Amino acid sequence: MVNLFLRAAGLAAAVTAAVGLAAAPASAAAFPALAWPFDAGQQVYSAGVHSDDGGTGVKNAVDFSPADGTARAALAGTVRLQHCAGGDWVTVDHPGGWRTGYYHLEGIQVTDGEHVEAGAVLGSTGNALPCGGSSTGAHVHFTLWTLPDAAAGDWDGVAFARISTTVAAALGEPIDGKTLGGWRLAEGAKQYSGTATHLADGTVVQLPGRFRAIP
Ligand SMILES: [Zn+2]
Q1: How many other CB atoms are found less than 10 A from the CB of residue 9?
Q2: Residue ranges of the M23ase beta-sheet core domain (predicted)?
Q3: pLDDT, tens digit (0-9, with 9 covering 90-100), for 116-133
């Protein structure tokens, strides 16, 4: 527990330092357009946009259950597996100080430090709880993050309860307004809500909902 506390304290210090800068590199650039974290064109159920812990705080999470049950990298980057006593979860770090997170995956097919292209298979959507949390029904709990530096992204051994509250408050990046697979996601007033708007034709899907994620 001491190690966890010191790591968290270091993270908080790093975040404080980053916030002190008027224009940190990560916040100066626009968040890149992402692919869906699954194969486009298939049926997907999304439980909607929510806070990482599903309760309070920045809504940096959205759940997806694609028909084929396969989670894929939403953007090219470097895999950073986060290890806990209960197993691993997948994060991918992207140029510009961005991170995408993929929680609940089973059968993880990538290794720590591996470079992946957008669309690379990460694993199967599932109910895994490597660092805690909860899940009802196989899905990927997809999250967005900013990282002021590499040290801030070391979440080895950090419980989901802390990731989804303290860390999310400092580093969570809202899903609202981000583009995935040519669709713009928006959060709603409530947890697990929002919309997905297909930019090509203006189709709006209310979340939670099931739709075909056509490009
Ligand atoms: Zn979720």
Answers
A1: 10
A2: 59-146
A3: 999 999 999 999 999 999
Yes or no: say if 67 and 44 are a contact pair by the CB < 8 Å rule. Answer: yes
Q: What is the pLDDT of residue 30?
A: 83
Nearest CA-CA partner of 28 in 96, 95, 74, 100: 96
Cα of 116 from ligand 1 centre, angstroms: 23
Residue type, 173: E
**Domain definitions of the chain by residue range:** 2-21+34-212
pLDDT tens track for 146-192: 999 989 999 999 999 999 999 999 999 999 999 999 999 999 999 99
Q: What is the pTM of this model?
A: 0.87
Extended beta strands in 40-182, E state: 43-50, 61-66, 70-72, 77-84, 87-94, 98-103, 115-116, 121-124, 140-146, 179-180
Q: Are 170 and 158 in contact (CB under 8 A)?
A: no
Distance from Cα 22 to the centre of ligand 1, integer Å? 32
Q: Please name the residue ranges forming H helices in the chain.
A: 2-20, 25-28, 160-162, 168-171
Q: Looking at the domain 2-21+34-212, which fold is it?
A: Glucose Permease (Domain IIA) (2.70.70)
